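Deliverable D5.2: sample structural annotation.
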Amino acid sequence: MSDPYNPETEGAQMAFDGRMAYADYLGLDAILSAQHPLSRAHDEMLFIVQHQTSELWMRLALHELHAARDLMGQDDIRPAFKLLARVTRVFEQLNSAWDVLRTMTPSDYTTFREALGQSSGFQSAQYREIEFLLGNRNRAMIRPHAHRAEVAARLEAELERPSLYDCALARLEQAVDIPHEALTRDRTQPHAPNKAAQAAWAKVYCDPARHWDLYELAEKLVDLEDYFRRWRFNHVTTVERIIGLKRGTGGTGGVSYLKRMLEVELFPDLWHLRTDL
C-alpha cells in the first residue's frame, strides 16, 4: 500500500498563521454565517441560500453591465461584447437556480412562509437596478427602497443615465442615419418600439459584413434579453408551482404580476425588426 498523499511534499502551502488563506480572501466567514432562518423549518435554509446566491450573481451582472456600458462609449466597442456574453451566462446560472428551488413543495413552503413577513424578491434593489440599466424604467419602483436613502439615490441616478440600449443607439447613429426623434426620449421611461430605429438596425442586418461590430452588438443584446426572459418565465413557473395563485409576500399579485412582466420587452426594436427582414 502506498503512503497517504501529502500535498506538502509537492510544495502546497499548509501553514497560514499571519498569511492570507482562501477563506480570508473570499470573506467566507461573513458569507457562510449570513444565513439566519427565522423558523425551524428545514427548507427555509434552501430558500435563503437560493436568494442570497441569486443576489451574488446579480452583483456580478451589475459589475459587468456598468463596465460594458462604459466600453460602448469607447472607439472600439468589441471588448464590451465579452462582458455582455458573460452577463448572459450569469442569467443562465440564475435560471438553473430555479431548478433547485422547485424541489420545494407547497407543503414545505407553508412551514416557514409566515416568517418572511412582507419581505419579497420584488424588493430586490439589485434586480431593479439591472432593469433600469437595461431600459425597463419606472420611477414608482423606487418607492419600496425609500427607507434606504443610499439605495433610492442610486436608483434615481440610474434613471438619469443612458440605458445600455441608449448607448447602442448612439453607436448605431455613427454608422447609419437615424432621425433625431428616434434618439431623444425621456430616459425615465421604458423603451418603446421605434420604426426609425428599427429601419436603421435593419440596414445593419441586411449588410452584416459592412457593419459587423453593430451586428454583433445587436445579437449580444438579443442573447441577453433571451436569457433574461427565460429567467422571468422560470420565476413565474416556480412561484405558481409553489404557491399557486396566492398573493406574494410583498403584496403583489404573485403569479398575475409576474405574468404581466413576461410581456415587457427590453430592446423592442431588435425584436420587431425581424418581422420585416
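Annotation notes: The CA atoms of residues 194 and 269 lie 6 Å apart. The mean pLDDT is 92.
The annotation will be released with the project's public dataset once the embargo ends.
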